[in-house]
């Protein structure tokens, strides 16, 4: 067991070092920070921002319904971050295995003593860690902005909300890793992952249109509805199970894909 854990850590460190040495990864992170930073300022301080809306309500003497400014800001901003991540995450996962195929190193991984699921787990942990470092500065900015709010926001809500964002990312990245293992084209991998994630993002709408037991089943697969629950600070077991299932499914399918690749080469 210790050997397996050591192998996973070795793959994790290699993958993480690869991201921090990649100009493309820095470009993706820069665009992500630029967009989210702009919207953070716009949501709070823009002409139609939340602070301006609250000030206008006060001038008009409106007190009902009351507005929890800090909570409203967190909801709007994290939903927006989730939407932006829909475009960013496929670009982070597209090279996990596609680059290995292109460089001809996938066969070495497939035939190495490390199990396929161990390699997949290490790679997934690496890209999740890199994404977490991308959202860390934004978490700090939000904490600074909300520290002056009255009444103060519970730290638990912020932690659960951002945990939901990381779980969303983990599920998407795991599925994207599987798609990356199917092709040597990073572009096709990114497009395929985006298409799959877009379907899972809007499947709730499809479920409502279908109705009945099938519609309910489709709605339970929705990324957005389960993500929204966590963003609201509500921990629901079904949401945790769903994201965990996507992570496990992605790792499992990736391991099977590499097994099939090894079989073809043998």
UniProtKB/TrEMBL annotation:
The keyword Transferase does not apply. The chain crosses the membrane at residues 24-45, 76-98, 124-145, 157-179, 186-210, 230-255. Pfam families: ABC2_membrane_2 (PF12679). It comes from the Bacteria. Coiled coil: none annotated. This is ABC-2 type transport system permease protein. PANTHER family: ABC TRANSPORTER PERMEASE (PTHR43471). Keywords: Membrane, Transmembrane, Transmembrane helix. The keyword Membrane applies.
